[in-house]
Amino acid sequence: MSIPSAPGRLRPARDINDRGETVLSRRVLEKTASQVARDETFAGGSSGGFLGIGARADLSARPDASVELAGNIASLKVTVGLPYPIALRQATEQLRRRISDRVTELTGVEVRQVDITVSWLKPAGTELSRRRLQ
Amino acid sequence: MKEHAGAANRTWLIILGILFLAAGVLAVLIATGVLGGLANASEPLLADGAELLAGESAPWAVLLAGVVLGILGLWWILAQIPRSRTAGTFRLQEDPARGITVCDPAVLAAAVSNETEQLPGVVSSSVRLRGTADEPDLAMKVTVNSDADVQGVIARIQHEVVPHLVTALEVPLNTFGLELDASSKPGARTDGARVSSRGTVVY
């Protein structure tokens, strides 16, 4: 075995861009955002139902999230349900900060905007205890 | 809680009143002969009335006038139907750089209504929120039955239900209206009593 001396037979150093690319589907971002909202904040979504009919408010369900991507910058729209009573401005600001920080951290996509729509408010009582038991 | 066409009714009645008053004054003046110089009583008022109506465009003008009057009349009748006055979506935060937060006032109203119906003796409630997120107006109609302690219900609405809404919106209410109604129906159905318990779970 001889060490090849010709420089042409060495593996050429390549530009980092040529090593392939990772494509993150929009759906991944949406699921990440809604999972972060469900696990790390007070927010809930709706569960059950068929084709959106008969769905019920559930604090342990994942909120709906949709993402608009422009290059590496995302703007999110989330529809959440919150326990009542809660200071809505504070809670949604906390939710916005949490979603944007965690989605950026987990996916590397810069989150510029998080638009939040509060779709229902419900006393926390039973739902939270059910959530703890899971 | 409903919006009626009161202002439109007043405006149109004033306009119609002035028109009819003018027509009446004119008729009186003609009849008493004050305007005798203008219209001779022995001659027909519209001397060339037949030619005027037989003209080419006369039927179309009459038709058009009829249609316009008909549309105005229809609009006026439809304006009598009471409408619910609704508020626009509450914008809780509006920062285009970071995102906006919106909440439909009906969502907050449903939460308030839900909480009110948990009070003992309350049969039903209807809640409407208007205004803006910074100056909310709350109107409530609460139906109670004979079992209710009315003073107690009012006190609990004032000291529990309304403060919870104020907590949620983080601003004091601009106005608050409460209407109480009585009914013979039994109290609001509940799914049973909730008792919180603590204990150790053994797996």
What does the model show?
The complex is a heterodimer of chains A (134) and B (203). Chain A has a three-stranded mixed β-sheet with strand order 3-4-5. In chain A, strands 1-2 form a two-stranded antiparallel sheet. Chain A has three helices and five strands. Chain A is elongated. By secondary structure, chain A is α+β, with helices and mostly antiparallel strands. In chain A, helix 1 packs across helix 2. Chain A is 33% helix and 29% strand. Chain B has 203 residues and is α+β, with helices and mostly antiparallel strands. Chain B is built from five helices and seven strands; from the N terminus they run βαααβββαββαβ. In chain B, the strands form three sheets. Chain B has a three-stranded mixed β-sheet with strand order 5-6-7. A two-stranded antiparallel sheet of chain B has the order 1-2. The longest helix of chain B is centred in the first third of the chain and has 27 residues. Chain B is elongated and about 110 Å long. The chains are: A alpha+beta (134), B alpha+beta (203). At the A-B interface, strand 4, helix 2, strand 5 and helix 3 of A face strand 4, helix 4 and helix 5 of B. Strand 5 of chain A pairs parallel with strand 4 of chain B, so a sheet runs across the interface. Chain A: This is Alkaline shock response membrane anchor protein AmaP. Chain B: Keywords: Membrane, Transmembrane, Transmembrane helix. Chain B: This is Alkaline shock response membrane anchor protein AmaP.
